[in-house]
Amino acid sequence: MNRIAFGKYIPTDSPLHRLDPRAKLAALVLLVVSVFVPVSWYCYIPLALTAFLAVRLSYLKLRFVARTLRPILFLMLFLFVVNALTLKRGEVIYEIGSFQLYSYAISFTLRIGARLFLMIVFTTCLTATTKPLDLNLAIEYILRPLGLLRFPVHEVAMMISIALRFIPTLSMEAGRIMNAQKSRGVDFEDGKLLEKASAILSLAIPLFTIAFERAYELADAMEARGYVPGERRTRYRKLRYCSGDLVLVLFSLLMLAAMILSRVLL
Amino acid sequence: MAIRFTKISYIYDADMPYFHNALKSVNLEIAEGRITALIGETGSGKSTLVQHLNALLVPHLGRIEILDHRIEAGKRNKGLKQLRRDVGLVFQFPEYQLFEATVLDDAAFGPMRFGYSKSEAKKRAADALISLGITKELFDRNPMELSGGQKRRVAIAGILASDPKIIVLDEPAAGLDPAGTKLLEELFVSLNRERGKTIIVVSHDNDMVYSCCDDTVLMANGSVVYHGDTLALFNDRTLIDENHLLVPRLVELKNRLQEKGFKVPSSVRTIDDLAREIAMECGS
Ligand SMILES: Nc1ncnc2c1ncn2[C@@H]1O[C@H](COP(=O)(O)OP(=O)(O)OP(=O)(O)O)[C@@H](O)[C@H]1O
Ligand SMILES: [Mg+2]
Q: Average pLDDT, whole number, for chain A?
């Protein structure tokens, strides 16, 4: 359970940690869009450099980033098989019997892989350097215009922040329950199908029980502190921009502009 | 030797900037057939140590031998099911592991996983439940409908029902009423004295430790700082001061009596023994 690296906040004091969550969120959106724009290969060089810089500036260990990327390797393998069977463009690179592997299948798979790779690295740099609650504030801020359309921005933001808040708690509880059941002879890794089903039940039922208990407790605690849905609330902590935020957003904007230009011109 | 730890180190979040070295080259040998208390401040690594006894955590360095099982750092260790059957581990707040539809089924779940037939498992479960004071009327109830203390007892019965050779309890009494605590104490003492089980119990209750544990392992900051006779530890003023231990009430009382001129042998463990000694002193 502790192995899940994607989306985890890493409490260090890196330059990216100190930036405003709204600026980081905006930059993420801009950069992710940039990743999907280019057509030619060398456009990925500045993007890759940016990703590398982002990792350095968030003080993340390369091993940690590599761990978040492991799942896409499997995805790419799967994609490659599908592409190899269906995409029949470009030159034939390899031939066995009646099967022909075309160059386009390879380059297409690599391109998608590169896009996913960059997207995940950028997202990891955001989630690893931004506390879930700050991220939530940023989301609330960006959704604020929707409030004019009677969209319950604040309530939705609150729901997201509570959900985010409980992910680590529940994953810790899940780890504890799994350990307790392993001690009772449950085998989560291998075992027959029927045993597997009972293993999953032995985890899921206690976890649901705990989740509901926690939810009731939290609801009581919120009510006891005077939380009323829909009331206007003030904030203890105000978000403030600094010059670094401006640099980050401008840089991301430039990157997007450059990618769009390259697509138009090339 | 039932358990031997050789230079065990364990690090939480080893590949994170905020890693935490929870066990630091721990050497420890626990003899068969004894009741050993594991004490130490909160965060000193007791639960971490205890989870190694079921290979739920595998050390980053070092080697563990438990009965005839071996767990080594950096290896894919086999025979874990057998190990978990031989070493029954009762977690802190074990009531969260309950999930079957009835009390009896839940207590029989462990033994069934460890290969007992259904009827045999139920028989063992029923015996274990009764020894913990859960009466037959409750057997068909849903565990979720029980009180917290009852749930705890059902969960513990579920471990005892598999008849492990070594029983490890991580703060089994936390949150129980005095009667429940007393029952639990008597239970593990009788499991040890009558059925020869090796017992390891993590506890913050030094009164309990003093009255019924043969040996004590004291942990601080991921290391073992004392391992030896319980009475010797709690009657040693310097050890107590150095480690900021809470003096058991009985030792406190004994010391005061001694100040007033009573001679009390240091082997006195319980209040009843003490009363007897005093009666003898007065009688003579
Ligand atoms: N899952 C975990 N991830 C990271 N650190 C952990 C984890 N579990 C425990 N720790 C850390 O390891 C140290 C030892 O924890 P452990 O649970 O073994 O303490 P303990 O002696 O059992 O304490 P207590 O008496 O409170 O139960 C603590 O400092 C704790 O913060
Ligand atoms: Mg503990």
A: 87
| Tokens encoding B280 | 């003898």
Atom of ligand 1 nearest to the CA of A175: 1
Tell me how far the alpha carbon of residue A34 lies from the centroid of ligand 1, in angstroms. 43
Residue ranges per domain, chain B? 32-54+79-229
Contact indicator for A48, A119 with CB cutoff of 8 Å? no
State pLDDT tens for residues B104-150.
999 999 999 999 999 999 999 999 999 988 999 999 999 988 988 89
Supply the pLDDT for residue A1.
37
User: From the CB of B56, is ligand 1 less than 6 Å away?
Assistant: no
C-alpha dist (Å) from residue A155 to A143, A170, B211, B255: 12, 22, 55, 62
Task: Using a pLDDT cut of 90, give the percent of chain A over it.
Answer: 38
* B52 Cβ below 6 A of ligand 1: no
- Residue B95: band (very low, low, confident or very high) from pLDDT cuts 50, 70, 90: confident
Reported ipTM: 0.88
pLDDT higher than threshold 60 for residue A171 = yes
Q: In what order do the strands lie in the sheet with B20-30?
A: B20-30, B3-12, B61-66, B69-72
Q: List the Cα angle B177/B185/B180 in 5-degree steps.
A: 20
Which CATH architecture group holds B32-54+79-229? Answer: 3-Layer(aba) Sandwich (3.40)
Distant-in-sequence, close-in-space partners of B265: CB < 8 Å, separation ≥ 6: B277
Q: Dihedral of CA B203/B206/B210/B214: which sign?
A: positive
Which residue in B has a C-alpha nearest to residue A64's C-alpha? B15
Please state, rounded to an integer, the average pLDDT across all residues of chain B.
91
Rounded Cα–Cα distance for residues B128 and B124 (Å): 6
> How far is it, in rounded angstroms, from Cα A142 to Cα A169?
27
Q: In this structure, what token pair is assigned to residue B94?
A: 């074990």
Those residues with Cβ within 8 angstroms of residue B235's Cβ, 6 or more apart along the chain or in another chain: B251, B266
B44 lines ligand 1 (CB under 6 A): yes
pLDDT in tens, B148-168: 889 999 999 999 999 999 999
